[in-house]
Amino acid sequence: MAASLPSFDHHRPNPDWASLPLFDRTGWRRMAFGDFAESIGERAEPKDAQEEIYVGLEHLDSQCLHIRRWGKGSDVTGTKLRFRKGDIIFGRRRAYQRKLAVAEFDGICSAHALVVRAKPKIVLPEFLPFLMMSDRFMNRAVEISVGSLSPTINWTTLKLETFDLPPIDQQRRIAEILWAVDEVIQTGDRLQTSILDARDTFFDDELRKGQTRSPETMKNLGMALVRIIAGKSPKASSEPATMGEYGVLKVSAAGDGQFVETENKALLSPDDFDESLEVKPGMILVTRCNAVLAGIGRACVVERTRPGLMLSDKTLQLVPNEGETDRGFLLQGLRSDPYRGFVERSSNGTEAKNVSQETLKASPFWLPPIAVQRRISERLNEFVQAADATTLNLKNQIEIRTAIKNNIFA
Q: How far is Cα 362 from Cα 375, in angstroms, rounded to an integer?
């Protein structure tokens, strides 16, 4: 879904807007959050909204204002919240994850979120998301969260927190600048997506040609592996482990092709850490459990990681047969349709979907001779290098946005 800039046409222009000093706080007012924003508590039952868009916290990306994926009301149970286009969906549970997005459509969302709506006579809807993304707001949100296992923000507390708010003219100018930076970030993100889509298309074309020429090369995943190693889930807190602490991976650590080391939970007892299950660079991880089908059997390679993290019972390590299987080829094959379709069809469970080791081993998997795998893997690596360069540029742009934002809202 392509991101679009908000329209400012409905605001009366200030002829002197270009000369407004962004950091001049003359006229700024300290106000309670609830004075310029409101929490929308409209309830919705999934059974009455089965075909509507559903946005869970798992669909939100940290520090990204855009919703890039979603499910349907039929995927979930329990009371949800209704949101409208232009509302802000803010993950009030585990606020340290910094999950916040502006809705570009109507739908329902997790009750572990707050649906926040600007009071436009006081704060511009285009401006409010950036105030909420600032370190000033997010750090305070973490501080006022309550609960140990899943710290959560209560609206009754948040609405009383005070923040400095500039006049409307400055809000408009600040928002326009930050949305322009955001558009640059989104353009880079779309470029990265195009590169990775081209990688997937290349592999799929090779797979189709390979199946046509040599049907016997379609085997199963188990034939590409020496073994599968399952993790454990000892008692842990809801907070990620700090350096020096031991942690266990959350299922979200196996991101879409990338390992996310911050997605872990600190062990309550260091004695529970199992050195044989420690996560190390080079490992290929697969999820065996997830709340959504697309997250089942999702794979990533650990490029780098801090010490002291271990596999959970929801993550598996695939150990490839090095003499018969190229690691880059294996990782890409775990994104291919034959494997993905089989895993999703074979999963079971109600609220959380599961897949067994035996099912993973039995999944269809294209396994041509090792020389063919290496040739394809070399080409795949070229796509990866291009994507990595784009990632670095994106990181720089995000740092620029963060610096502007935090200087304004310091």
A: 25
Length of the chain: 410
Does residue 27 register a pLDDT over 80? yes
Query: Is 60 a residue whose pLDDT tops 70?
Result: yes
The first and second tokens of residue 199, run together, are: 């990688």
For 126-144, give one letter per residue: b (16+ CB within 10 A) or e.
Answer: bbbbbbbbbebbbebbeee
Residue 260: pLDDT band by 50, 70, 90 thresholds?
confident
CA distance 162 to 133: 15
Q: What angle do CA 17, 408, 22 make, to 5 degrees?
A: 20
Task: State the pLDDT confidence band at 1, using cuts at 50, 70 and 90.
Answer: very low
> What does the alpha-carbon distance between residue 247 and residue 152 come to, in Å, rounded to a whole number?
21
- pLDDT tens sequence across 279-295: 999 999 998 876 566 66
What pLDDT sits at residue 40?
A: 96
Q: 3-state SS string over the chain?
A: CCCCCCCCCCCCCCCCHHHCCCCCCCCCEEEEHHHHEEECCCEECHHHCCCCEEECHHHCCECCCCCCCCEEHHHCCCCEEEECCCCEEEECECHHHCEEEECCCCEEECCCEEEEEECCCCCCCCCHHHHHHCHHHHHHHHHCCECCCCCECCHHHHCCCEEEECCHHHHHHHHHHHHHHHHHHHHHHHHHHHHHHHHHHHHHHHHHHHHHHCHHHEEEHHHHEEEEEECCCCCECCCCCCCCCCEEECHHHECCEEECCCCEEEECCHHHCCHHHECCCCCEEEECEECCHHHCCCEEECCCCCCCEECCCCEEEEEECCCCCCHHHHHHHCCCHHHHHHHHHHCECCCCEECCHHHHHHCEEECCCHHHHHHHHHHHHHHHHHHHHHHHHHHHHHHHHHHHHHHHCC
Distance CA 47, CA 77 (A): 8
Per the CB < 8 A criterion, the answer to whether 181 and 393 are in contact is no
Q: pTM here? A: 0.72
**Residue 62 confidence class, pLDDT cut points 50, 70, 90:** confident
